[in-house]
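Hi C.,

You asked whether I'd gotten around to modeling the 315-residue construct. I have! Everything is below, sequence then structure, no commentary in between.
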Amino acid sequence: MILAADIGGTKSHLALADNSGEVIADKRYPSRAFSDLESVLDSFLQDFSISREKVDRLVLALAAPLTGECIDHTNLPWQVCRKALQSRFPQAELHLVNDFQAAALGALAAGEEQLLALHDTPREAGGRKLALGAGTGMGVAYLHREGDHYYPWPTEAGHIAFAPADEQQWRLCRHLQARYGRTSWERILSGPGLADLYHFLDPRKPPREPPAIIDAANEEKDDTAREALTLFARLYGSYCGDMALAWQPSGGIYLLGGVTTHITSWLQQPAFLEAYGAKGRMSALVNRFPIHIVMEPRAGLLGAIQYALQTQVTS
């Protein structure tokens, strides 16, 4: 039996799957309600009356660089140690995978009906693919085909320095630098980043949480919220275009993440694609690549399961 977990800064999504990858049970938990990863795993197993001994493979998708024995989660005060996990599941094959490596594989597992086209140009068969997305942070991974399989490779490209493109964006950069020092794209293209955009646009208004900003914008109740979503979409498009230049994903660009899937109507407006394609002499190049939003809410979890299966096949 496979125990898979997609551990995000906001939610942790866990599943049990059989050895063919079929999901038997799954459940979401608020990540910050737990003091550590082990507590979430134990709660899930208890909820479904499963003993640790029945777990043959344990695969964990984590938002963090996976280096060293112990790993600090980027968006949670958790440390994940390989030896400690292996001692709790001594009979299990342990896999740790970057969360966006898993999400990238999950994007490929999504059916065509779960892909919302933003830029519907043809995908090149076997071409490199790029997955990126705004959630609690900004994740980026790319997929390279070898033989019959696509293999996901992690990056920390969400932490590349923000590149302002106009006077408003320079003012935003200075605003964020005053608060955070170095300003990466993740400081903007994320749930917390959306809240910061709202405050930047009108510091006189009280702070709002990202879901409230999105709701107010969609319901046309708050002009600042609408302005924040338009600016967010423009910045998202600009960043996506830069990532397309870096990886040239002729096999397609896949947008994921909790923020992404809640602002689809804003990403479908002109601001996103205008900024995406505004790459000077390279505009024609990036405009060749198709872009889709992945609407499958379990993409990270399904990708983690696929990673365990794929690793077994190739090991």
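If it helps when you're writing up: Residues 111-295 form a domain with the Hexokinase; domain 1 fold (CATH 3.40.367.20).

Thanks,
B.
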